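Handout, page 2. Input:
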Amino acid sequence: MAKMGQIPWLRIAAEGVAIVASILLAFAIDAAWAGRQEASRERAVLNGLADDFRESRAELVEVIEIHDRSQQRFESYLAATPAELLAWPSDSVVSMQVLAPSYTFDPRTATLDGLQSAGELRLIQDPRIQSALADWSKRLVDLDEDAADMLAAAGRVTRMTERHGGPFGSLPFLRPAGHDETAAMRSDPELMGAVRTSHYNAWYYVAELRELLTALDQILVLLEHELR
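Output:
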């Protein structure tokens, strides 16, 4: 016990240490809780991104396949003899998608858009994923520009087919090209020049899609590794 008039420095120091320790413990508990909350939020974000990219991948593969089939049919159309053209069901050979490919890729970006608009990309701790997502967003901007070129070229072909009774297709508001129209279009040099330009733009677009597929697969690998 301290004598009368003496200041109990030891007790004061002990109480001070206890107070500081309790404050530090409270901060540590709050930090640990915030860390768990942050980790939980990050995992939810990564799961959302992975779901979006899986859906995007399925559509991307489908779009590439559609363009590949259109290119094959167009090459068959160009290579066919007049007699072979007469033997073909015209609606299975010549449509606007064959003459002027215009099918575009619509990626699922809801999760990424939400992160970017809310400024929450920082939730993702792995810098490789952050970098890959930034590259993905840039690729989509470039792809939109190429899609606009492809659609513009396809629109020109569509308008030019009107001189032969077009546009043609299998949709309810379009009719298939008849055999005479099929042959006449192939004999129209101006139209075929526009068609080749359209196919060149589509080829360039699909080349970008193939590169995009590679980038997408790399992102999925990173996401799935982080989610293990």
